[in-house]
Amino acid sequence: MGEQIPVNPVMLRWARKTSGFNEEDVVKKLKRKQITSETILSWEKGITSPTYVQLERLAYEIYKRPLAIFFFPEPPEEETPAESFRTLPKVEIDLLEPRLLYLVRQAKVMQENLRELFDGINPAKKQVCSDITIHETDGISDVAKRVREYLGVGLNEQYTLTTNAKALKYWRDVLEKHGVFVFKDAFKEEECSGFCLYDDVFPIIYINNSQAKIRQIFTLFHELAHLLFKTGGIDLRHDDFVQKMRGPNKRVEVFCNKFAGEFLVPTEYIKPQIHNQNIDDNILTRLAGKYSVSREVILRKCLDLNYISKTIYEAKVNEWEEERAARSGYAKGGNSYYNKSAYLGSSYIEAAFGKYYQGDISRTQLADYLGMKETHVSTFEGYVLHKGEST
To answer: Where are the domains of the chain?
Structure first.
């Protein structure tokens, strides 16, 4: 059975709550017949305690917290999801999945890593989130044009991006050159496309690598808009919650969605290409490929310009959603070093190895920054040196 460990019961309850689990969830994950919901409650009330093996599983596999934290006298100060995503309604905050809550915590760790790796100074010469601030009353097309000019990207460059993978890498590089670090991870769910965390020096965007690259591209600019509002945000596939919102928060959320579409597909350029055209799958597919966006973005433009009815728009979106659901499913496996390289991005990886080569950090610290075992660092080093970063 093992000897019980005298952990702080307050920390057990805090770790479970902040991870988004109820007692039954923890029981299912522990997969031990002798452990019930009553067992979990007994631990959290301090009546009994878990064994060391059970505590390890709780810490590393379920709550994804350092084991030492369960011996703290009280919970550390952490920004809550409600504080990170102020525009998101409470009902949506309460529905966030444990995996997403973990990734938000991980994103905050990455922000601290960036602070350490770059000595508290963003390396970008131009920083879009510092130099541009937007307001909900601003004209969306004007803002999109201003941001495009600031980033120095024209449509001719966008048209040369022959694949969605090239387009995603291009946009990611553009944002990182302008002070916004972009990380990726497999969210293992389709509902959330990504999120961002605002910071005066190191604003970051996390995108869901489990989704199509064209969706990831849209998410980049939805989240960029949030950052320009100086706030964090989440890009959810469904937008039902937006209809229930009121006041400034609703206007911000609507703005972010429209900004992403306008930035990627400026109305003044797309309008002549769809005017007096038969809006069918052929033209939607062709224009989506030209701008490296989804067909839905083009279709939304057609709706906004009154070239199709809302009924047609909703019917088509539902049709594509059913197609997507039929072929969806998280694909496991793949080259772990390739995935790690894509998730972290070249700027972050170069900064971490640069600190190591200069003797500023140890190999153990390097492994910690990279989020891998120290024994894997050499193999990963050889991989990124010969393969480079890829999206």
So the answer is: 9-77, 90-264, 269-328, 339-387
